[in-house]
């Protein structure tokens, strides 16, 4: 008597190749979606927040510029409210406002004349503006990468462009 192995039914023991391909495809789609949501969108958010903070600094410098110009036109005497702490204000009068202290960064203040301060503000705002332009370019690159990955996902899933 000749012993033979029973015939294997490949359909029930091993999943079809289509099922493996679909599982791999689904896994790749999830990886790309995670990359978009956890890396690219987070990077984009950081760049946009950084750009907004630089715009805020520019705004403060422009307010200072306007204040200096109004000081130049009104004379050297200045009346202002000074915060003593805990929102307690007192009125103060500055007899000679020809020199002011300007925050130059990292917690340092420099005493300057009005003209020096205006020149400093011009240089600082131009530097900050150049930095915002770079941040805008960086955000555009990140947005392009997001679009490219989304287009790759559409291609993987066999979706047509719905836009």
Characterization of this structure:
- With 163 residues, this protein is α+β, with helices and mostly antiparallel strands.
- It is 65% helix and 17% strand.
- The protein is built from three helices and four strands, in the order ααββββα.
- The protein has helices at residues 10-13, 17-74, 114-157, and strands at residues 78-85, 88-94, 99-105, 108-113.
- Strands 1-2 form a two-stranded antiparallel ribbon. Strands 3-4 form a two-stranded antiparallel ribbon.
- A hairpin with a 2-residue loop joins strand 3 (99-105) and strand 4 (108-113).
- Helix 2 (17-74) runs antiparallel to helix 3.
- The radius of gyration is 32 Å and the shape is elongated.
- Mean pLDDT is 85; it is low at 1-6 and 8-14.
Number of strands: 4
- Main beta-sheet annotation: 2 strands, antiparallel
Helix content class = 55-70%
What is the rounded Rg?
32 Å
Give the structural class. Answer: alpha+beta
Give me the side-by-side strand order of the main sheet: 1-2
Unreliable spans are 1-6, 8-14
Strand content: 15-25%
On the 0 to 100 scale, the average pLDDT is: 85
Encode the helix/strand succession as letters: HHEEEEH
Specify the overall morphology. elongated
Distance between the termini: 70 Å
The tally of helices reads 3
List its traits.
4 strands, 163 residues, disordered N terminus, two-stranded antiparallel sheet
What is the topology?
Layout: H1 10-13, H2 17-74, E1 78-85, E2 88-94, E3 99-105, E4 108-113, H3 114-157
Antiparallel strand pairs: 1-2, 3-4
């Amino acid at each position: 008597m000749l012993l033979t192995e029973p015939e294997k039914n490949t359909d029930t023991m091993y999943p079809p190749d289509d099922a493996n391909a679909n599982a791999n495809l689904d896994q790749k789609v999830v990886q790309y979606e995670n990359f978009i949501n956890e890396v690219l969108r987070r990077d984009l958010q950081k760049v946009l927040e950084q750009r907004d903070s630089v715009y805020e600094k520019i705004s403060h410098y422009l307010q200072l510029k306007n204040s200096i110009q109004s000081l130049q036109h009104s004379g050297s005497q200045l009346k202002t409210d000074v915060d003593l702490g805990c929102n307690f204000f007192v009125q103060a009068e500055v007899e000679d406002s020809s020199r002011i202290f300007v925050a130059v960064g990292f917690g340092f203040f420099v005493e300057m004349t009005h003209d020096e301060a205006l020149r400093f503000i011009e240089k600082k705002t131009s530097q900050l503006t150049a930095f915002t332009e770079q941040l805008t370019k960086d955000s555009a690159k990140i947005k392009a990468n997001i679009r490219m990955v989304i287009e790759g996902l559409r291609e993987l899933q066999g979706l047509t462009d719905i836009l």
